[in-house]
Design a protein that fits this description.
It is a single chain. The protein is 98% helix and 0% strand. The chain has one helix at 2-110. It is rod-shaped and about 160 Å long. The longest helix is centred in the middle third of the chain and has 109 residues, at 2-110.
């Protein structure tokens, strides 16, 4: 009978120890998984923050470039208008010059 009691005590102790150690092992595994998840979350949060900063800088640069483009377009319009005016003036001067040449030729013929 003593052997049976010792055997049952050993089996019950083993089962209780197994259950307790199994629960502790699960808790340890869960703790490691949570730590890994936290590290991963921190990594991706830093990555997102970096992308957000880059996006903000790119947006500022785009806005500056759009302002520069608008100013250059305005200056181009002014210069195009001035160029047309000067081209028209050159054509008028060429016509005046041609008219004066014709008058000079007539004047030479009269002499």
């Amino acid at each position: 009978m003593e052997i049976l009691i010792a055997f049952v005590t050993t089996v019950v102790s083993s089962i209780v120890t197994y259950l307790i150690s199994r629960r502790a092992h699960r808790a340890d595994v869960l703790k490691k998984e949570l730590s890994l998840a936290d590290s991963t979350l921190t990594y991706y949060q830093r990555l997102i923050n970096d992308f957000a900063a880059r996006l903000e800088q790119a947006t500022k640069t785009i806005n500056q470039l759009e302002g520069i483009i608008a100013e250059l377009e305005r200056q181009n319009a002014i210069l195009t208008k001035a160029n047309k005016e000067q081209t028209d003036q050159v054509h008028e001067l060429m016509q005046t010059n041609q008219h004066l040449i014709e008058r000079l030729e007539k004047f030479k013929q009269l002499k």
